[in-house]
Amino acid sequence: MRVGVDPLVCEANGVCVGLAPEVFDLGDDDELEILLPDVPESEADRVRHAVRSCPKAALTLEE
Ligand code: SF4
């Protein structure tokens, strides 16, 4: 499973970081960084929840 972000749509509100902090991080420049774009199975449910919860629909998932 791969997760990606559209940086033009993301508003860096941190919702996904709160739901899956092992996978998403906000750097000092307030740009979302994806730490684990190839999502490990152990993080899959958290990442799916984060993708559904992004208020900007900025995250994409390839199963
Ligand atoms: S939840 Fe969406 S808008 Fe918020 S930081 Fe994550 S990708 Fe960006």
TrEMBL record:
Cofactor: [3Fe-4S] cluster
Alphabetical keyword list: 3Fe-4S, Electron transport, Iron, Iron-sulfur, Metal-binding, Transport
Domain of life: Bacteria
Protein name (record): Ferredoxin
